[in-house]
Structure prediction request, 105 residues.
Amino acid sequence: MQKCLPLNLLQPTKAKRRLLNETYRTFFSMVKEVKSAYTSQTCPRCGHIGKENWKGYSYFQCVKCGYEADRDRTASRNIAERADKLFSYSQVSILSDMPQSTGTS
Prediction:
């Protein structure tokens, strides 16, 4: 037998609307735009930027330090690092759990 929610839980109230609005406001205050320009050309290890780091369609190899990884993964890591700098007030880094690339992926 299926339980039904009491009607008063389904009906909107001022308190529920206020809570929902505050939740949205809190969430959207944490959303920040991160520029993605040159993220697939930038080495996350040494910072060297250049199209010569692209080796084929999806492979990245830094000509300066030799860092190797998938190009999309490199871009994602660079975007995450930029986001981490935007949220520098935070005690926890969003990159702390990100695996480090040591060779080819």
